[in-house]
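Input record (Table S2, row 446):
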Amino acid sequence: MFLTGTMRINEKGHLEIGGCDTVELTRNFGTPLYVMDEELIRKNCREYTDTFSRLYPNSQVAYSGKAFLTMAMCRLVEEEGMALDVVSGGEIYTALKAGYPASKMIFHGNNKSAVDLEIALTSGVGRLVVDSFSELELIESIGSQVGKTAQIYLRVKPGIEAHTHHYIQTGQLDSKFGLGLADGHAMAFVKAALKLRHVELCGLHCHIGSQIFDLKPFQVASEVMMDFIQGIKKKTGLAIRELDLGGGFGIRYLREDSPHSLPAFIELIVTTIKEKAAEHGLTLPRLLVEPGRSIVGEAGTTLYTVGTIKEVPGIRKYVAVDGGMMDNIRTAMYEAKYEAIVANRALEEPVEKVSVAGKACESGDMLIWDIDLPKLVRGDILATFSTGAYHYSMASNYNRFTRPPVVFVSNGHAEIVVKRESYENLVINDVIPAHLQKRVERRAAN
Ligand SMILES: Cc1ncc(COP(=O)(O)O)c(C=O)c1O
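Output record (pyridoxal-5'-phosphate complex):
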């Protein structure tokens, strides 16, 4: 059984999360429903912040909002003493609306708009992670117009590509993000930034990938970045004071997944940074990481109601649920794999292999291929696990389905943090121009 955080099976044989019976949750809030285990999110936040403050006090953990961002999540992130990595005007707006301090935001993106940059500068966003020469020029020009100096990080391509179980050191430059070390662009950027009056280069940033289980690539990235800091000092005299190593630490989606412990990961990067600083005679930089998935991923569970069941003889049995690629695009996009159980009969043994289909008009709208489950019937509640990261945040209105609500559960209480979208929400921005309106008006008049 795949149970994480506060999950347990209660005396009714129902899946319980945060002390809430999931079958009850579906009665109260409907399906599909995103359920977030608040206690587990906080536990994950504290594991990061406590381990860093023990091993490397001059550090900051920045939650990566792209994984899952709502106003309630911004409040939680602030309560847990974490900075916030944002990637759009919309994420900045959400955080500001929630009362999250702009000074603790780190603004990413490979093509930030002038409007978003102006909002970031005037609202006092703490750090801007700059991705290109043209963005550097844009920031300088906006900074001079609004009379602000931007505190920036340069996003570097460290030439390491990491995936779940392997990584390659390629010197690879073919990525839309950041500037390369191998082609000299990163160093040229540093020299260019030093000449500008409304930009202060205070740090470097890199992010080597996501859902990484292997620790080695993080070690190599730390080494490469420290070598570059030394290179900058030698060539320009500038002492880089901050180093942001991005996110990417892997989580469990499947029973057989076994990521390293978080403290082991943190210990490795901290040791590497200290060793490299000693080797190069550098002052230890302020160290940042930006976890997203490893904070919220395993804390999320999606509840669906089973609908149509269709057997294709000798081939497979399709079990359709009332959600799909609109609330979980990861199977279609990355061939992601999931565990699931029948939440209302959680102790029953699996008896057959089925494939779980969504309800969108798309053959590729599958949530799980080939999973062993008890015999399902219409009305059963299916719970899919580890759906806290990149699910709600990637949800869409494809086919004009409404996006599901999100509830935080903790100590037997369930609180809505995002309401279910209504059909009215779907048409709120639609406009019927006058020439298409006439026939409706005539019909109404008759
Ligand atoms: C720049 C940056 N930082 C942090 C993250 C968060 O990564 P993860 O959710 O894998 O921890 C991402 C994810 O794509 C990213 O692009």
